[in-house]
Design a protein that fits this description.
This protein has a six-stranded antiparallel β-barrel with strand order 1-2-8-7-6-9. The chain is mainly beta. It is built from four helices and ten strands, in the order E-E-H-H-E-E-E-E-E-E-H-E-E-H. Helices cover about 15% and strands about 40% of the residues.
Length: about 210
């Protein structure tokens, strides 16, 4: 099964917001488009044998290989067929955990604990690279802050993880936006703070953190 267990650089290419009906309730939902350049070995994560179906090993004396930084050099860098165009996979994955890191702090990010992943489109390239596009859908517990932050990250390269349900933590999660200092304990209010909060609405002491 396709997954990104370690933080991996991808590009968030588009965000579509919509409303779904859950019974009588209307809830916010998003479709997030992802672009990811991967080594061609990832093909076998979708279906064993898929790599061999599209790629072959270089002949003796042919030094063709994958040269992208961070990728393992492919042992099968040569396309069996040219000009195939994008290959669409009818793969749908349900209940994955999707996390987005941003900024310089790895502890800062967005967590969507139950997303559906699909609409895979793969552009197979000579040399052993696969340019992949796929869609992440979420429709539970979204807030304006989460959607707004994702919108600000569109067209940017970020690090993400995509974790299958069977290896998720057993503790149930809610979608969350993690910001610097959120886990720090707030200092107790002083008498002056309480007085200010009572006579000046909107003061820092009265703000919701």
């Amino acid at each position: 099964m396709f997954s990104l267990l370690n933080p991996t650089f991808v590009t968030l290419s588009n965000l579509n917001t919509r409303v779904e009906k859950h019974g009588d309730d209307s809830v916010s939902a998003i479709d997030l488009s992802i672009n990811y350049d991967a080594p061609n070995t990832i093909l076998d994560d979708f279906m064993p044998g898929l790599l061999d179906a599209f790629y072959k090993a270089a002949e003796a004396g042919d030094e063709s290989q994958s040269t992208m930084d961070g990728f393992e050099i492919s042992s099968k860098p040569l396309l069996r067929f040219n000009n195939l165009g994008a290959q669409k996979l009818g793969v749908e994955m349900v209940g994955h955990r999707f996390a987005v890191e941003y900024g310089i702090d790895e502890e800062v990010g967005i967590v969507l604990p139950a997303v559906n992943v699909g609409k895979f489109s793969l552009e197979l390239k000579e040399g052993g690279t696969v340019s992949m596009k796929f869609r992440v859908q979420a429709n539970s517990g979204l807030t304006e802050q989460i959607i707004g932050k994702l919108a600000m990250l569109i067209s940017q390269e970020v690090r993400v993880t995509l974790t299958p349900p069977e290896v998720k933590a057993e503790v149930e999660e809610e979608p969350s936006l993690i910001l610097p200092g959120m886990d720090e304990e707030e200092a107790p209010l002083t008498a002056g703070d309480i007085f200010t909060a009572g006579v000046v609405p909107g003061s820092e002491a009265a703000a919701v953190h």
